[in-house]
Design goal:
By secondary structure, the protein is an alpha+beta fold. It has three domains: about 210 residues, no CATH class; about 90 residues, Pdz3 Domain; about 325 residues, 2-enoyl-CoA Hydratase, Chain A, domain 1 (Alpha-Beta Complex). The chain has 21 helices and 21 strands. The strands form five sheets. Strands 4, 5, 6, 7, 8 and 9 form a six-stranded antiparallel beta sheet that branches. Strands 11-12-13-16-17-20 form a six-stranded mixed beta sheet, with helices on both faces. Strands 2, 14, 15, 18 and 19 form a five-stranded antiparallel beta sheet that branches. A hairpin with a 5-residue loop joins strand 6 and strand 7. The longest helix is centred in the first third of the chain and has 27 residues. The chain starts with 6 loop residues before the first helix and ends with a helix.
């Protein structure tokens, strides 16, 4: 029988860390912030207070928020810091604003390196001992998972008890998966060693980024500081291309492992690098190799990336155990999985007896190669251009009866692209209204005459559709140009961010230094009907059941989110393709089908089961109870996982797979086409 750790075991554990936790570790060390980081902090502070939409000062209120946020970011479940640590750092509650303003970032460095890492080291020691200790899975125990409600532990023994339950839960999950106990312990030892190594490999500049971003988040949830490396990643995502060898990498047991060879990249053309090969060292065309074993994957990637046409050398441990060196030439790699895709779906393929063709266009994000556009490149990457190309392809294939724009999981992107994509479906006029820092309202218009497609239009959204997606969906709805289907509402992000290099007119001589960038909320946008999308989002004309719709996803669930408000609407034309009567008819027909559909019945049961679990703040540590609950939840968890994967990994596999949800959208679309044709016939 497995037993709960004895009193003697817990006494030993407490003694192991008594010397370390008897007094607080935190100690202020003034003046240790590097000069470059001091200047970065000053500039970031200046830019936020000058340009943020709220026009609020960096004051004691922000200082207190920053302290709370840093503690939450580092220790959300209150498993590392002690009450004494919190008391020690709380004296800085009203000082952080003053320190950052003069460029002093010592607090962040001390908190992370002098307190957090030491507490983590202590906890990992305890974790390893608890992993090997006996546990009784027949006891009627629970573990709290509500970090917000928890208090900071007053002693090491109190933390030990929390970790006993955490490790017991880890072991119990593996036990329920039929993992032998020794194998389970081996896995957990490796897991916590990896956790410790990863934390200790954090560099001071990374802590600076975390700290300055936390400060920016205190103004609103979308403002952040990006280091030069993070900025590079952001720019790659926006232009959907990078210069590299064409291999997707993952970290595994301290090794950098090839997970995928990207089609068309240098690695594929060379032919020698294979999936599962381990890269152990990286060298540039000249110079020594750099050993990358146990190195963070983000740093490995930076070593391998480089300008197109240059060469990089990889020392590789092949799956057969041979060590070889490959020299590869870097080249531009297009990130195809994140770009616009389209396909025509014959209705009869999905719905027996149905006729017609529907064109589905999936837009994963509103991307734009800003540098290419500024340089006047003819073929710079653009969402609007790619959507237009798909629409033209639909025409070449004989046309479609309706177009479905799938924005599920689209978190936004470039404002200009949202305007230009809207312009493909409406003929000139306002698309979005923008409020600036001084309160002035300006209209951003589609200025191109004509439309690329004028037929029936359906827009799909969910709780993960945000920002630029909401601009597009809101404009289509306000023009009565098409119908919106999906979750009850979208994410509710009604703000505009601008990515600004960290610099200042006051420091012209320093502007050539790369200090990263500030992604700052500088505007709030509004639909042309005068409503902000902030917090409330864009409501669907027809809502379909989904678990996602009941999750705490959306602006209203984020800390420091700006409030909803209204402004004066913008005059605009109205299209005659949507009316309250049409929407009501489509909704009623859909609700009847959904109510009679067995697959939607399962979804409704999954939703109810999810809601029952949602408010519960504990998990079972009793094997029988957790097993029974897990068996009951298995189908729901699988359905939820499948839905999350579909919504968060758009662009992989079929862009519009056959599901009850997707087929109902097709039925609604066909009904819509039919109602419009009836109206046109009646008008004649």
């Amino acid at each position: 029988m497995l037993l709960r750790p004895s009193f003697r075991t817990m006494t030993i554990l407490t003694a192991c860390v008594a010397l370390l936790v008897g007094t607080t570790i935190f100690a202020q060390q003034a003046g240790t912030t590097a000069p470059a980081e001091q200047m970065t902090a000053k500039l970031v502070t200046e830019m936020i207070t000058r340009s943020h939409i709220s026009q609020k000062p960096l004051d004691d209120r922000i200082s207190a928020m920053l302290l709370k946020r840093m503690l939450k970011d580092l220790d959300p479940q209150k498993l590392y810091f002690l009450e004494s640590d919190i008391e020690a750092v709380s004296k800085f509650r009203d000082q952080l604003d003053d320190l950052i303003r003069i460029g002093n970032l010592d607090f962040a460095q001390d908190l992370f390196f002098n307190v957090y890492l030491k507490r983590m080291d202590e906890r990992v020691v305890v974790a390893h001992m608890l992993i090997d200790a006996p546990h009784d899975f027949t006891l009627d125990e629970t573990m709290s998972v509500d970090g917000e409600a928890a208090t900071w532990a007053a002693s090491a023994s109190e933390l030990n008890e929390r970790w006993r339950k955490r490790i017991k839960y880890d072991l119990l999950l593996l036990k329920l998966d039929d993992t032998p106990i020794e194998e389970a312990r081996k896995r957990l030892h490796k897991r916590y060693d990896t956790l410790k190594k990863s934390a200790h490999s954090t560099e001071p500049n990374e802590v600076v980024e975390i700290y300055l971003s936390a400060m920016a988040h205190c103004f609103d949830p979308h403002s952040s500081y990006m280091s030069p490396q993070t900025l590079e990643d952001f720019q790659i995502q926006m232009r959907l291309s990078l210069d590299g060898i064409g291999a997707a990498l993952r970290s595994e047991d301290g090794y950098t492992v090839v997970a995928e060879i990207v089609a068309g990249g240098g690695a594929e053309k060379d032919g020698r690098l294979k999936v599962k090969d381990k890269i152990v060292a990286v060298g540039q065309e000249d110079g020594d190799f750099v050993d990358i074993i146990e190195m963070k994957l983000s740093r490995v990637v930076r070593l391998i990336r480089g300008p197109g046409g240059t060469k990089v050398r990889l020392r590789v441990l092949t799956e057969s155990g041979e060590t070889v060196v490959y020299e590869l030439t870097r080249q531009k790699i297009e990130l195809k999985s994140s770009e616009v895709k389209g396909e025509i779906i014959p209705a009869s393929d999905r719905i027996p007896g149905a006729t017609g063709k529907l064109g589905v266009i999936n837009i994963p994000s509103f991307y734009r190669d800003f540098a290419g556009a500024q340089q006047g490149e003819d073929d710079f990457k653009s969402t609007a251009r790619d959507v237009l190309a798909v629409l033209k392809d639909f025409e070449k294939q004989g046309g479609v009866d309706a177009v479905v724009i799938d924005l599920r999981g689209n978190g936004g992107g470039a404002l200009q692209e949202a305007i230009e994509v809207t312009g493909l479906f409406v003929d000139q006029g306002p698309v979005v209204l923008v409020k600036e820092q001084n309160g002035k309202i300006r209209s951003n218009d589609d200025t191109q005459s004509g439309v690329a497609y004028g037929g029936p239009l359906i827009v799909l959204c969910n709780r993960l559709s945000a920002s630029a997606s909401e601009i597009f969906a809101g404009a289509i709805k306000d023009y009565q140009r098409g119908i919106v289907i999906g979750d009850h509402t979208t994410h509710g992000k009604g703000t505009v961010q601008n990515v600004m290099p960290v610099s200042s007119q006051m420091f012209r001589l320093l502007n050539n230094q790369n200090r990263g960038a500030l992604k700052l909320t500088i505007n709030q946008f509004y639909r042309i009907n005068g409503d902000s999308t902030q917090n409330r989002g864009v409501e669907s004309d027809i809502a379909l059941p989904s678990i996602l719709d009941h999750m705490d996803l959306g602006e209203s669930f984020l800390d420091n989110a700006l409030a909803f408000d209204r402004i004066t609407p913008a005059p605009h034309v109205m299209y005659d393709v949507v009316s309250q009567g049409i929407v009501a008819g489509l909704r009623d027909a859909s609700q009847k089908r959904v109510a009679a559909d067995a697959e939607f019945g399962k979804i409704q049961k999954d939703i109810q089961r999810y809601l029952d679990r949602k408010t519960r703040k504990f998990v079972w540590l009793n094997e029988d109870k957790l097993r029974a609950e897990r068996d009951a939840d298995k189908a729901a968890n699988e359905a939820e996982k499948e839905e999350e994967e579909r919504e968060t990994k758009r662009g992989q596999g079929p862009i519009y797979p056959k599901t009850a949800y997707n087929d109902e959208i097709l039925r609604i679309s066909l009904d819509y086409v039919g109602l419009l044709r009836q109206g046109q016939t009646a008008a004649k």
